[in-house]
Amino acid sequence: MIYDPFEEIRRLHEYIDRMFGDMFARSREMDIMLARAPLIDLVDEGDRFRIVAEIPGVDKEDLDVRIFEDSVVIRAEKKLGKEEKGKNYYVRERGYTSYYRSIALPEPVVPEKAAASYRNGVLEIVVPKKAVKAEGGHRVEIK
After folding, report:
1. What proportions of the chain, in percent to the nearest 5, are helix, strand and coil?
2. Which of 64, 127, 131, 134 could pair covalently with 75 via S-S, beta carbons 3.0-4.6 A apart?
């Protein structure tokens, strides 16, 4: 038998892989924590903000958009349909994708008047700005 100095290194490498393999296995909880942040454009159009977000591969029903007075939160989740019986997967990474993005708005908005549309993986949200009160404020009569 010939001595191979690298055999010990290979065995140590395999041992470490086995020891830490389960620790770093991805779980659903890990996927949620590692949600992708969709790429966005935030455009000030004078009396409203327009937000355009790229969220490919997600159905409209799987989108959740929440508008607050000072921010917009986008959540989306894509789950693979039913698992096909008889398929012998070696690696299956496409089964789940999630997106999450919280966008701070530079001015207050009116959440109730927001509108959104989704087409070809692009989400578009339009939300009007809150009316700014006159800078002079309200004059109080002094008695």
Report:
1. 20, 35, 45
2. 64
E strand map for 13-70: 39-44, 48-54, 63-67
d(CA 125, CA 5): 62
* CA distance readout (Å), 101 to 27, 43, 57: 21, 16, 16
Residue 138 lies in a domain: no
pTM for this entry: 0.65
Whether 119 maps to a domain, the answer reads yes
In the chain, the number of structural domains is 1
Residues 26-47 pLDDT 10s: 554 554 456 788 999 999 999 9
pLDDT 10s digits, 85-138: 567 766 666 667 789 999 999 999 999 999 999 999 999 999 999 987 666 666
Q: Are 52 and 40 in contact (CB under 8 A)?
A: yes
- CATH number of 46's domain: 2.60.40.790
